[in-house]
Amino acid sequence: MAEARKVISILVENESSVLSRVSGLFAGRGYNIETLTVAPIPNSNRSRITIVTKGSERVLEQITKQLHKLIPVYKVVEHDEMVEKEMVMIKFPIEESLADIQALCEAYNGGIVNVGIDMIISMVADEPCRVKHFIEASKRYNPLEIVRGGVVAIER
Amino acid sequence: MKMNGAQMVCEALIAEGVKTVFGYPGGAIMNVYDEIYKQDGFEHILNRHEQASVHAADGYARATGEVGVAMVTSGPGFTNAVTGLATAYMDSIPLVVISGQVPLALIGTDGFQEIDAIGISRPCTKHNFLVRELCDLPRIMKEAFHIARSGRPGPVLVDIPKDITAEFGNFVYPESVNIESYKPTVKGNKRQIDKAVDAILKAKKPLLYIGGGVVLSNAGDLVRQLANMGQIPAVETLMARGVMGAKNPLLQGMLGMHGNYASNMAMSETDLVISLGARFDDRVTGKLSEFAKYADVIHVDIDAANIGKLVDVDYPIVGDVKGVVERLIEGLQSRINPDRYGDWREVLGRYNELYPQTFTDSDEVIKPQWVIERVGALLGEQAIITSDVGQHQMWAAQHYPFDRPRQWINSGGLGTMGFGFPAALGAKKGCPDKTVINFTGDGSILMNMQELVTASEYKIPVINIILNNHFLGMVRQWQTFFYDERYSETDLSYQPNYKAVAEACGGIGYDVTTKEEFDAALKDAIAKDRVTFINVAVNRFENVLPMVPAGGALYNMILSDKQEEK
User: Which residue of B35, B72, B173, B248 is most buried, as measured by CB atoms within 10 A?
Assistant: First the structure.
C-alpha cells in the first residue's frame, strides 16, 4: 500500500505524562513520527501536539483511532487542508558573506537573528518543503549547525 | 470527613461496592494496609505473589462481571503485577490495581523500591494515574472504576506515593464522573444498523462470529435469541465459549488455529460475517487475505479502533454489542425467514459429520481430551472452568460443553502461563456456589504454585487438574510439526511430586493413571472441599487437532496425526 504523509493535530489535557502516552503509542505500535511539536494552548488547561507521520491508509486510520482511545485526548484533527509552518535556525561561520546569507534568508521569509564574533545565526519559518529547500541552498555557505523545529499546523 | 489518604482509598473501595481485594503489602503501601486492618467493609486475600493477586482479581472480574481489585507495593511489587495487568488488558477485563509509590520527594531519585510504574504500565493498562495531590485522590478513584468498567473495559492502575496516603484531608467521594475527553460511543448508529439488517436479510450464508465482547457486555442471551430467530449458524472465538451453549445445533464450534473443521470452513465459505465483539485476532483469522474471502463483513465493536484494523469492513457499527444486537433483533423480527439459510445449515451439518471435533480414545493411557469430556459429563454447567495456557487450554476450549457465558475463564490474548490457578481462586471467591476447576499443565502449574498456600489459608477449594504429559506440550507440538522433532528445552521429565507439594501446602494431592482413579479422585476432591492437585498422567505425544499452521489459510487444516506424517 502506498504511504502518505499526514499532519495530525491532537488536543490533549495538559498533564505530565500525556506526551509519553502519545509518543509511546507511536513507538509501541510501530507508527512513524517525522516531526513532533507540543505547546500549551493559551488560557486553557490543554496542549496541542502536532505530529507529522507517514503510513498506509489503514495505518493512518489506526493512528487516529488509537489516539482517540487515550483518555486525556480531547480531539484528533487530521484534515488535509492544514496550513503548515516549520522553523529552522542555521549557524554559519563569520567568514561567509553576510549579505549573501541575508539575501538567501529573505528569499525564504527569514533573516539573520544573531551575529557573534565568529558566527552568524539565521532563522527561517516557512512551509516544510520550503524549509527543506532553504537548508539545501544554505549548504554552499558551510553551515556549522542546523536546528529544525518540527511542523506546527492549523486548519484552514 | 477528615481522614488520611489511606483511609480514603479504603472508603472509596467500599463506596464502589468492593467485597474482595487481592493483594500483598510492602513498604510504600503500608499506610493503606494499616487502614485495611482497621476496617471491615471488604475482605483482603493475601496471595503469595503479586502476579497471582492481579490474576485473582481478574478471575473474580471475569466470573462476576464486576470490577476486580488488587493492591501491591512499589518497585518489585508493582513489576510483579505487570503480567497481570497485561493479561487483563489484552482480554479487556475491568480491574483497578492500586500500587504504592515512594514519597513524592523521592520520585526520580532511584529511591529504594522505586520504579516508574506509570511509564511501565502505560502500554498494558487502559489508563493509569499517579496521585500527586491528596485532594485529587477521591476523584481519581472514582474515575479509575468508571474507566475500568465503561466502554471497552480494561485495567486501570492508581499509583499512590506513600506521603499522600499519610496526609490528612477532607474526603468527599464524588457521586458522578465527568471526564470531558472520555465519552465512549455506546449506542450504535441507526442507519448502519438498518443497513446491517438488510445485509442479513439478503445474505445466503450468514455466519455469526461471536467474540469475548459478547461476554463482557452480558449480551449472551440476546445473541442466542438473534441466532435462534433467524436460525443463523454461529462460531465462537476462544473468548466467547459458552455464549451459544454447547447443545445449540446452530453452534459450529470454535474457529481459528485450533478450531474445528466446520467452523473454519463456515468462515471460509460464508457470504456475510456478522462479527459481534470479536477483533479478528491472528489466531482466529490465519492468513488474512484468505479469511472470509467471499464475505461482506458486519463488525460490531465498542472500540472503533478494532474496526478496519485488520479486515476491510462493509458495515461498521461502533457501539455496545448488547444494545446493537437488541436493535438488530428488532429490525429482523417478522422479516427474517429462517428457511432462507436452510441449505447453508445443511452444508455445515455435513462438514460436522465429515470431520467432527473428536479424538481417538485409548484403553492403555488416559487421553487429555477424555479428562476434559469426563469433567464436562460429570459437572457440566455446574462448574466454572479456568485454564492455564497451552495444549490443555485448547483441549478444554474444544471439548468442554460450555453452556453459559462467564463459565470459561482463560488468558486468550496474552496467553499467560500461571494464570489459571490464581484466576480460579478469584472466580471461586466471586462465585462460591460453583465448583471451580482449573485445567492446567505440568508446565503452567509451576508458574503460580505458591497459591496452594493462599487457597489453603482462606479455604478456597479449587480443583487443579494437571494434564501431565511431562512436556511443555504446545511448544513440543510445534517442534514435532515444524522443527523436525528437535525438542529443545521442552522435556519436563524432571518432575516435582505434585501430590506431596499439594499436601505440604495444606491441600490434597492425587496421582492418577487410570480412568477409574480419575473418577474417584474428582469425586473425593469435590467432597473434601479443599484445594487439590489431581495429577493425571496423560498420553505424552497427544497433539491438539485440528491445527491451522501459523499464517496459513483457515481452510488448510491439519486434521489428523496421520496427515502430518505424510
Answer: B72
